[in-house]
Amino acid sequence: MDTGHINLTFLGCGSMNEAILGGILAGGLPAAQVSATVRRPERAAELRERYDGLTVLAGNEDPEANRTAAAGADVVILGVKPVGVAALLAEIAPVLKPGTVVISVAAAVSLELLEAGLPAGQPVIRSMPNTPSRLGRGVVSLSAGTSAGEEEMALAAELLSSTGRVVQVPEEQVDAVSAVSGSGPAYAFYLAEAMARAGVELGLDPELSAILARDTVAGAGYMLAEPGADATALRRAVSSPNGTTEAAIRSFDEQGLPDVIARGARAAAERAAEITAELSAK
Ligand SMILES: NC(=O)C1=CN([C@@H]2O[C@H](COP(=O)(O)OP(=O)(O)OC[C@H]3O[C@@H](n4cnc5c(N)ncnc54)[C@H](O)[C@@H]3O)[C@@H](O)[C@H]2O)C=CC1
Ligand SMILES: O=C(O)[C@@H]1CCC=N1
């Protein structure tokens, strides 16, 4: 798939869309082919400063920003909060080219809602990325809308491949993907925070403990990223029989930590379903 002449635009460019933008530019798509819209001019200036050659339009000073960016695009990536998606679609629907591929990264926003806000036949893809995309270490799922065929899915996969791994899932699984990999980086950061606090309780200097925790979670992440890595085998390699690690893991198991994590992920998926229901009731 040739992305050589693709014009790509990011509508809304906060944490998630900037992470994708960063990954795609680092992957070699020329900034001249990419644009982004934001609300505040200060945020636009920040992005222009950070990404040389990127066109950034700010809605607060140019009410046509989203329409201008969307009208010229072959692919648009919607990166606003779920509650803002319908209004954004209403804004851009009249100016989109018929073949423009609309990708939404919004959690809980169904393909049905996306398609209802766009002209019939517009190719739409629902995706669930995560923030390590910025480093090319993300994982993103794609689910095809009714008018997104193999060609559009291949184009989206090709564009997003520089952000990390791309998987295809049926839409019914997106909330589960979100609960594992969409929110997942926050779980890993939460673990690092908890480990740092544990070190302080054991008498370490807070700054040192934060460094130990951060570098350890990052180092473990690098090991997991190696080809063929297996989390269970890697964990066992740290755990000497009857040693210190085993004592910690036994304590985690006795306290039901795997269940705690499963219940947390379930809460994330349930919240996604709740937001979907809230949005469809509007
Ligand atoms: N943050 C994450 O790790 C992930 C977020 N997502 C999804 O990504 C979407 C964005 O989330 P975040 O980046 O975290 O939020 P964010 O608040 O950092 O970014 C949203 C951005 O959109 C801008 N914006 C809002 N309305 C706009 C409009 N009409 N025109 C132009 N810009 C507009 C806001 O000013 C803001 O900068 C959400 O729908 C979320 O569900 C999905 C996966 C992971
Ligand atoms: O917290 C959220 O709602 C979004 C979706 C997945 C990660 N962040």
UniProtKB/TrEMBL annotation:
Gene3D superfamilies: NAD(P)-binding Rossmann-like Domain (3.40.50.720), ProC C-terminal domain-like (1.10.3730.10). Belongs to the pyrroline-5-carboxylate reductase family. Pfam families: F420_oxidored (PF03807), P5CR_dimer (PF14748). Its main location: cytoplasm. Residues 8-107 form the Pyrroline-5-carboxylate reductase catalytic N-terminal domain. NADP(+) binds at residues 11-16. Its EC number is 1.5.1.2. Pathway: Amino-acid biosynthesis; L-proline biosynthesis; L-proline from L-glutamate 5-semialdehyde: step 1/1. GO terms for cellular component: cytoplasm. GO terms for biological process: L-proline biosynthetic process. NADPH binds at residue 66. This is Pyrroline-5-carboxylate reductase. It is found in: Cytoplasm. It catalyses: L-proline + NADP(+) = (S)-1-pyrroline-5-carboxylate + NADPH + 2 H(+); L-proline + NAD(+) = (S)-1-pyrroline-5-carboxylate + NADH + 2 H(+). GO terms for molecular function: pyrroline-5-carboxylate reductase activity. Catalyzes the reduction of 1-pyrroline-5-carboxylate (PCA) to L-proline. Keywords: Amino-acid biosynthesis, Cytoplasm, NADP, Oxidoreductase, Proline biosynthesis. SUPFAM superfamilies: 6-phosphogluconate dehydrogenase C-terminal domain-like (SSF48179), NAD(P)-binding Rossmann-fold domains (SSF51735).
